[in-house]
Amino acid sequence: MIGHLFELFVGKRVSAVFSVLPSILIFFLLNKTAFPIIAAAAITAAVLRIVFVFLPKKETVITIGSLVLGALSFYLYFEKGAEFTGKITTSLLFAAILVLILSSVQKIFCERRILQVAEAFPFYFFMILGLLVLVIPKPEKPIDWSKALEMGDRLASSFNYYMPDIFSGGTYRTGYSNLGVTGGKVSLSDTMQLKIKTYEKPYFVFEDENGDKIKRRKTLNLSGGRGSEKEQIVAFVNFLHNNNVDKDTAKLFSEISSISLEYAYLKTNDEIAPLNALYLEAAGQSVEGGRSSSLHKKGYVLNVTYLNIDYGSPYLAELLRNDAGSGCMSFDEACDYFRKTYGPNLEKYVSRDEYDAACANGFIKGVSSEYLDIDGASSRLSELAKVLTEGISSDYDKCREIEKYLRQYRYSTDVESNGNTTYDINTSKGASALSERFLFETGEGYCIHYTSSMVMLLRLSGIPARASVGYHYMFPFDKADFYEVSGRCAHAWPEAYIENVGWVPFEPTSAYRSSEENTWNRVPAEANEAAVKPYTPSVAPAASSFDKELKEEETQEVSLWKELVRVVLPVSASVVGLLVVLLLGTRAVSSIRYGIASLDKKLEIDVNRIKRIIRKKADDDFVDRGLLSDYEKRVPEEFKASAKAVFGAYYRMLYGGMNVTPVTETEVEKAKELRENMQRI
User: Fold this and answer.
1) What is the pTM of this model?
2) Is 295 exposed, middle or buried (0-12, 13-18, 19+ CB in 10 A)?
3) How far is residue 362 CA from its own chain's centroid?
4) How far is the C-alpha of 391 from the C-alpha of 461, rounded, in Å?
5) Where are the beta strands (DSSP E) in 387-538?
6) 493-515: pLDDT as tens digits
7) Alpha-carbon gap, residue 363 to 365, rounded angstroms
8) In whole angstroms, what is the distance from residue 237 CA to residue 229 CA?
9) Burial class (CB in 10 A: 0-12, 13-18, 19+), 445
């Protein structure tokens, strides 16, 4: 539009240069850190505008290119989950894309007569349509295509639930499994397997070191086959008590939460629940154990109360690093401490006998044997474990060092299997074989390779470890009635047994955020700083690099509007200024050209301007046949004599030949006077 305005005053190529100046101004004014996509789009638009001026067959290129880019944007958004900044920019983007696609389709199919239509729609018709798309209220909930997608995926992969059945060769489609694998290629499945329902917000908000509000999505690890982890809870509660953790300190990294899990396209005997489950209930009945004698099918609902722990909290990390010691409270003391720390009574979740048994067994049974098995590990695997942990005193820091090392490896689901051999990472031999190939041969893999490697390196370092399997789910930013957990969320991760603490999960898989990057970033209130002083970490919690751009939703929308106002006002002023400059400049140049022109040239300029004025003021569809007599008829009666004399002088100049009487000053003055009179009408 700006280009068309400029073309009224200057030629197309010059107007192209002027019309890109607002885009360049947007690029320099915009906060490129907060809005990198918009800034990149502005400078790209400026470059393309110049390029297309000199491009041969540019209309065809622009038409086809607009259609392709529009279709690509829709594909990235709907199929690949690409995000385009916030709600405002996304709406504007897709309104513009809709306009481009519809007008491009018409250009390609209708105007080229591929489709027979009586008359093509003008471009402004599509502009109006785009504006309607922007202003028409949208439903809060998008169209639910899950049923159709589920049916299609079911036909293609109805047998892809359990890894032993899937990994018998070929490519595995992700889903819930028991991790009997070959370690070969994986394709991600969008089949919905679970529905999560919760009354809690799917995100939390905190302030970074600059005081900016950051909105971070919550994450959830769901594991199958465990049931309520009573021994784990007993261990963790005593760990907190032994380190003199009070209610305010515990709140920095732990809280009681609850969710409802509905089984969708999933068949399993396992009870799938969040880590540190306190209580499981189905159909109003308490669920004991992690595995049912009957097969759970679609529609099975499991309600879970669990102790949600932020393992990335620096306050908890300091406790894990510098544990104050062991010891087990009496059951009554534990109930009283749990109630003061979290609210409910521990007796609601753990009976006296279960508590006493957990304390008598050292909290977790079988830790020193099964989870220290290193059968199948090679000498080079042992040497690597020694190099990574040498000189590190605490088990927790050893875990972090191994985790950090493994996160350097490349994540890939396109990994060739080693024949058709099946490896179970729940066994030492299976985990060793997978980790050897991952660490020393391929150098790339996915969660089972990272997990098996960390499990074996931990065991070789003297730390009990196990592989966990289930789902890793990251909530969206928008609250919903329920959240879909698809097959692509299937995940495996390692857990290490830290003495006096219990099982602690880690995330060595480089494609996933570490626990530090998912931390809640809770900090103590001023009044409670003294209480948490012994646990204050050397580095204060900060916003993860993953979330720097994720501002709290309302703040982000307001900031975007402020940014638009801050940028749009000067850009609009620059456009108006450019138009004024062009208008005044054009008039100045015209005046100078007229002033230095010959009498013949002045007469030609005035006649052309008179013709333009007459065409502009014509009420009907005036057709220029090239005859001045047609123009003379449209001159008002009081000026007809002047018009006849001026047009006659002009014809004499054009067709009079060598001996014609030259144009006189009087004739030029009469032409100028006629032009000024016509302008005033």
Assistant:
1) 0.59
2) exposed
3) 45
4) 12
5) 410-411, 423-424, 444-445, 465-474, 483-486, 490-498, 502-505
6) 999 999 889 999 999 999 999 99
7) 7
8) 12
9) buried
